[in-house]
Write a structure and sequence with these properties.
The chain folds into two domains: 263 residues, Zn peptidases (Aminopeptidase, 3-Layer(aba) Sandwich); 117 residues, Alpha-Beta Plaits (2-Layer Sandwich), CATH 3.30.70. Helices cover 34% and strands 24% of the residues. Helix 1 packs across helix 4 and helix 4 runs parallel beside helix 11. Bound molecules: zinc ion. Zinc ion binds next to loops.
Length: 395
């Protein structure tokens, strides 16, 4: 395994500190489109890429919200394919943080700050490994692209838009805090709203009305009961089974009125291989059977996001895993329940894996941090992957 010198470690920490110092909060789509908080970090990252000699292409997802694609024009052989190394530039909100969000504190072997873990640690890691490999003229035969995305935290809209522009590579390593392990699959969310409609009346004569909350109670019973059997039918080797939970419920208007309407929101996390259309059709049909009628309720599909399912025998997965085995003893690729930019990349036919420094347990937290050991190790693993294949194909 290639080890970083003290100077290279410092270079890595300096870059992380700079990235964290730039506010790139993406709290929700509306505010992010209005405030363009990612514009400043994108300007810095683009400039940094140019300072490494890369040509940088800017593809805006929304005005002031650019995805960046960089590569060295003299690097890579078109016949050898292409590899994307990517991480997102946005972070979640800094509300409620107990550490300084935009000024990195290095203490106890950690770097504290918003995004240090998710996922500016990966940005710093990837850019540093690429810079060193380029300086040593030890990049692989494939054309290597560095891609920095916006709007991951609100549902991977940046990566989705990038795929819609037609950008493709053969494989991708996407940064997320995976504790320097290879993640080859994740679930895809499906968010539904169910609305039940009753017949309101004075609550002193409840027998004259139909209670929408009462009906919703049976919907909840269905979701957490018979429906679980249906979604557990499909089992994924790394992810186990899909899950579905009622997470928000609201109904009724006044204490003395039998409620006319009740709404519930349902979070589904589906394993690869479960087609969303089929799931929603089954849900609708089985719910009608459970309630004894198809009337009185409506299902609205809110959001769906694609899962990740990279076959473990793909070169990007095997070769990265081989190095992770040497570094930390990882013996097989992992599956995770959260989703990331890998979803849209996988859907577009790219062999994608997640890999990066830090633990997802520290992402989005009030005292977010990344272990400096993780930062160094991730950089060494990626650098070794690149330089071990100097002039030769990885894929
Ligand atoms: Zn992330």
């Amino acid at each position: 395994m290639r080890r970083l010198t003290t100077g290279e470690q410092q270079q890595l920490r300096d870059l992380l500190a700079k990235l964290v110092s730039i506010d790139s909060v993406n709290r929700n789509l509306e505010e992010a489109n209005r405030d363009r908080a990612e514009e400043r970090i994108a300007a810095f990252v683009a400039e940094h890429m140019r300072s490494l000699g890369m040509a940088v292409e800017v593809r805006e997802f929304q005005p002031g919200r650019p995805n960046l694609i960089g590569h060295w024009p003299d690097q890579g052989d078109a016949g050898a394919g292409s590899l994307m190394i990517s991480a997102h530039m946005d972070t979640v909100t800094v509300e409620g943080m107990t550490v300084e969000p935009f000024e990195v504190a290095f203490r106890d072997g950690r770097a504290y700050g918003r995004g240090a873990c998710d996922t500016k640690g990966s940005l710093a890691t990837f850019l540093t490994a690429l810079a060193i490999a380029r300086r040593e003229d030890a990049l692989p035969a494939e054309r290597v692209y560095f891609v920095a995305t916006v709007s991951e935290e609100t549902g991977c809209q940046g990566a989705t838009a990038l795929m819609q522009t037609g950008f493709r590579t053969d494989a991708a390593i996407v940064g997320e805090p995976t504790c320097c392990q290879v993640v080859a699959s994740h679930k895809g969310p499906l968010w539904l709203t169910v609305e039940t409609r009753g017949k309101p009346c004075h609550a002193s004569y409840p027998e004259l009305g139909v209670n929408a909350i009462d009906m919703m109670a049976r919907v909840v019973q269905f979701v957490h009961g018979p429906w679980q059997e249906r979604i557990r039918r499909t089992r994924h080797p790394l992810l186990g089974t899909s899950t579905m939970s009622v997470t928000i419920i609201e109904g009724g208007s006044k204490v003395n009125i039998i409620p006319a309407v009740c709404r519930a929101q349902i979070d589904g996390r589906f394993v690869p291989g479960e087609a969303t259309d089929v799931v929603v059709a089954d849900f609708s049909r089985m719910l009608a059977e459970h309630l004894g009628s198809a009337d009185g309720f409506a299902i609205v599909r809110q959001e769906t996001y694609p899962p990740l399912n990279c076959p473990p025998d793909r070169p990007i997965c095997c070769k990265l895993l081989d190095l992770c085995r040497q570094a930390s003893g990882q013996t097989a690729p992992l599956g995770v329940n959260y989703f990331a930019d890998t979803g849209p990349f996988d859907q577009a036919g790219i062999d994608a894996v997640l890999f990066g420094p830090g633990d997802i347990a520290q992402a989005h937290t009030a005292d977010e941090f990344v272990d400096l050991d993780q930062l160094d190790r991730a950089t060494e693993i990626l650098l070794t992957l690149l330089t071990d294949h100097a002039g030769r194909p990885i894929l």
